[in-house]
Amino acid sequence: MFRQHFYPMLTAVIASGLLLMQTAQAAPVAVVNGDPISQKTYEQYLKYRTQGQKDKATSVNRKALINELVNRKLLLQEAKKAKLHKDPEIKFRIEQQEMDILIQARPCFRSKPRKIRSATRNYAKNTIAKSLVPT
């Protein structure tokens, strides 16, 4: 009889604990006009602002950083309300920024930047310079 009641109760306790953990993790650090700013967004922005340096991350004021995220969210909402993202020039600039970020994020740029710069210089010397020389 003990086993009949124990395992379902144990399962219920574990399930509720997992649910509570997910709820705690999902709780936003702020909500801006109904749009939440998640803990994950806060942590990623902290890493971005401190450029991944842990010693800087510990000295950052949490409230100030959340306030900065809220202000950025408000400005973004205003820009979208004004439909700035539909302006052809703004669209082009967003595409260029995305391209730059993706190019810089490629693993080969992070792991061996000197080799990439060296290869780029050699390519420029050997290929581009030769094409500029009149024959």
Question: What descriptors fit this protein?
Answer:
135 residues, mainly alpha, two-stranded antiparallel sheet, 7 helices
Rg value = 25 Å
Anisotropy-based shape: extended
Helix/strand structural class: mainly alpha
- Percent helix range: over 70%
The SSE order reads: HEEHHHHHH
Largest sheet features: 2 strands, antiparallel
How many β strands by DSSP? 2
Quaternary class: single chain
Structure, described:
There is one protein chain. By secondary structure, the chain is mainly alpha-helical. It has a domain at 86-135. Helix content is 78%, strand content 4%. It has helices spanning 2-26, 39-49, 54-59, 62-81, 88-105, 107-111, 113-132; strands at 30-32, 35-37. The protein has a two-stranded antiparallel sheet. The mean pLDDT is 77.
Give me the secondary-structure topology.
Elements: H1 2-26, E1 30-32, E2 35-37, H2 39-49, H3 54-59, H4 62-81, H5 88-105, H6 107-111, H7 113-132
Antiparallel strand pairs: 1-2
In short:
This protein has 135 residues and is mainly α. The chain has 7 helices and 2 strands; from the N terminus they run αββαααααα. The protein has helices spanning 2-26, 39-49, 54-59, 62-81, 88-105, 107-111, 113-132; strands spanning 30-32, 35-37.
